[in-house]
Each structure stands twice: as structure tokens, then as C-alpha cells.
Design goal:
Length: 359
Amino acid sequence: MYTNKLKAVGEMFRLPGTLYSYTSIANGNINKTFKVDYMQADGDIKSYMFQIINTYVFKNPAQIMENIDRVTRHIRKKNEDGVCLHFHHTKDGSNYILMGDSECWRVMNYVDSVTYNSSDDLNVVRYTGEAFGRFQTQLSDFDAAQLYETIPDFHNTKKRLVQLFADAEKDPVGRVDSVRGELDYIKSVEDIATRLTDMYALGAFPPRVTHNDTKSNNVLFDRRTKKPLVVIDLDTVMPGMAMYDFGDAVRFAANTAEEDEPDTDKVGLDLDKFKAFAEGYIPFVRDSLTPLEVDSMVLGAFSITVELAARFLDDYITGDKYFKTNYENHNLVRTRCQLKLAQDMYEKRDKMKDILKMI
Ligand code: GN1
Ligand code: MG
């Protein structure tokens, strides 16, 4: 169904060969992704990743692509032999195109690799920590002020919660009565969960270049060696707090279940995975971050988990406009899962801090 469109996009990006086959990739809650195979003149197949950027979420694709261009150029200089992300350009030198009114497309090189949504293999978790830790240090000398804030206040937990409570007041699709318990819990932890955002606003932490979506499936691994190759999904690279990148990765990789597990009895923080991730991440960043940032990592994990719960719940309350959903209550299921995880993180906060002290 997409064949003609993909062909047209491939022509704009001057891809050699002829379109041979394509598959839709299910990863990601926002953009739409395809792996597209081209037959070369010699019969070989070369693959590309095509993406439609969600312009409801990313209002200014030009700024996103400029951020990505700057950041990938900086990383490439430090990692000349390694795998890097590479976006293709049109004959006019643009790394994205608009089809019709607003459909925004881009094309990347395909990296043969594996990704993990979650993994019980502690080596994979440790390597995920290394990958994001390395990413943070590679960008530690990049001036965060050079980047556009493509989604303003993306990880401003305070504003996210204010928005949630305002939308709950309005109750636009009549779902609020069924989520009073969830709203009450979020209200009860509001002060703790917004503490880092407040401190950041007062200048307690320097703005870092952060990834802002450090899920483990945003790291590509070598199929054979099982080592990390490259960090992907740079759409939300912006100035931010390092603790939130650490925390978001823990939220995803150290959950005993998937991000949208419906049975909350299965959800919790796995301390072994937390330790493995931290063992990978912390040694990379210890020299470039301040001691206060390192001391705030555990609170970062709790805060971003509450924030994600608030974002999923807000989307549920306002009619599922932002995140892709696979079934009616998907955003509510995600909310409950994140809240259970946040509660467990809170109970285990001292154990998490002890683990960090040992590294
Ligand atoms: C979205 O689309 P994806 O999976 O890369 C979201 C993140 C959330 C994540 C939760 C731009 O990321 O902030 O943490 O879903 N991205 C945006 O799975 O909102
Ligand atoms: Mg993302």
C-alpha cells in the first residue's frame, strides 16, 4: 500500500537501484518506520530506513533535523571508525522532504543489528548503560545552547503535572471518573517528583545535551558480538538534565515487565538490572557530571517515571491523540504500569542509592 509513496521518496533522495521490498517496523510510539530494500545493478540488496515524522508531535521537523545533523557530526568526529547514523540528502541538500501538505519523510542508512525491548541478560543491560553513558560523554563538550528546544518543556515534570490536572478538570472525553485513584497518587507525590525540575530552573544543574528518550530499544547491538553499536532516535536531543536520561533508561530497562504490562503484579524495579545499567553508565559520566547530578540519579528515575505516568494519563484523559495506541485502554494500562514502577522505585530508593555508592 505504501509502495508508490516509498518509490517517490526514494527518488527524491536519489537512492540507487530499484525498490525490491519493504516491511513496516512496529517500534516507537510516535513516528512511522519502514525498512526498505533496494536491488542494486549487481543484484545485491541494500536496505534503508524510511520514516514519516509525526508532525502532530514534532511541529518543526526542520529544527529536529538540524539538531540531529549537528549532534551526529560531533559524534562522528569522535568515533570515526564506529557506526554512525547517516541521513540521506535530496539534490537540494535537505535531509527531509515534505510530501503533500504535511507528510514529512526522511531516509537513514540501515544498520544490520538487533534491539532489545527488555532483556534479562545483565550483560545487555550493562552494555545499554555503556552506550548511553558514552553518548553523554561524547556530547559533554557540545554547547547545549546550540540546539533548538524542539518540544518546549519536554521533560519539565512540573508543567506536565500542571497540564494533567488542568485537563482532568476539563474532562473532555468523560474518562476522569475512572482514574481518580491514579490522579490522587500523582498529586500525593507531586512535590517529590517535581523537585529536580525546580532545582534545574534555579540553575542547580547545568543544561546537558541529553537524548531524552533513552529506552533500551534505542540502542542498536551487533548481532554477533552482542556489543552496542550506536544510539539511535535522536529526535528529542535537546538541552536537559542528565539524571533524566539515566532515569528514563532505568525506567525502561530495569522494569521487571514491559512498559505497558497490564498485570501490575508483574511490574517492579529489578535491582540487579538497575545495578547492571548503572555499572555501565556511571563510570562514563562520573568525570563530566557534578557530584550533585550523580547524587540525584535515583530521584531522576522516580521523577521521570511519574512524568511518563502523567503523560500517558493525560493522553488517556484527552482522547489518545499523542501516543499510538493498540487498544482502547492502552494509555491507561501504561499509566498504571508506570505508577506501580514509581511506587516500587520509591520503596527501593535507599537500596538504589547504596548501589550507586558502590560503583
Ligand atoms: C515516545 O516514539 P518513541 O517510542 O520513540 C515518546 C517518549 C516516551 C516513549 C514512551 C517524542 O517515544 O517521550 O518516553 O514514547 N517520544 C516523544 O515509550 O514524545
Ligand atoms: Mg523516541
